[in-house]
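Work through this:
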Amino acid sequence: MDILLMIKTILLGIVEGITEWLPISSTGHLILADEFIKLNMSDAFMEMFNVVIQLGAIMAVVVLYFHKLNPFSPKKNRREKGDTIILWTKVILAVLPAAVIGIPLDDWLDEHFYNPPVVAAMLIIYGILFIVVENRNRRSRRRPMDDLDRLSYPMALAIGAFQVLSLIPGTSRSGATILGGILIGCSRTVAAEFSFFLGIPVMFGASLLKIVKFGFQFTSVEVIVLLTGMIVSFLVSIIAIKFLLGYIKKNDFKAFGVYRIILGILVIAYFAFLK
């Protein structure tokens, strides 16, 4: 096994673990990272790897929120178990827009949007939107909804509709859903947590779709690379999620908006003048 290959895989796992939860686009960063951290694997494998590695990151949510998301927990009373089931029905409802649009258009989206120019454009556009929305919220006198149990089904569906935007690389699934949650009146914490939960069925479904398309005939090297990336992204995600939840209690998302704009400009400059 090539040591350099493992080092590169670990680096990509770190990139995924950080960027999956911060609203800066994990898929976009992985596509860009592949320009500089070449794994020298087949194009088909890399297309699958860039999605399935996110499954490791999603498992961090399952571990961190296992009690909250488990409707069968013996530590919960009947009402709490019922509330958990209701939460899952809201998550499933919110998943539907992306599933209905994303599954039939998967190949078309890959063909037309998995490229650096699109990633750069989405980084800049949504960076600007984060700044605009946060400035608007600062002037707003409306108290944001800060209780996840009060999230209504229409609000859940609206957040799910925003998730459709993240089918384009560079948008950020967490960024689109958090931004959508804030726009419809959720607090940053509620929007972020619901975004985390929404990622569970989305990424399990997306990973399964990519694995089926790739086929189940993995080489031993491909298995090791995939598992290594997933494990590293899982461990880093634990840290990233805790950081984000702590950060948004005292700060807004404008810093992420500025980061997205700067990165988008650098990407454009690199591919326009240096590549």
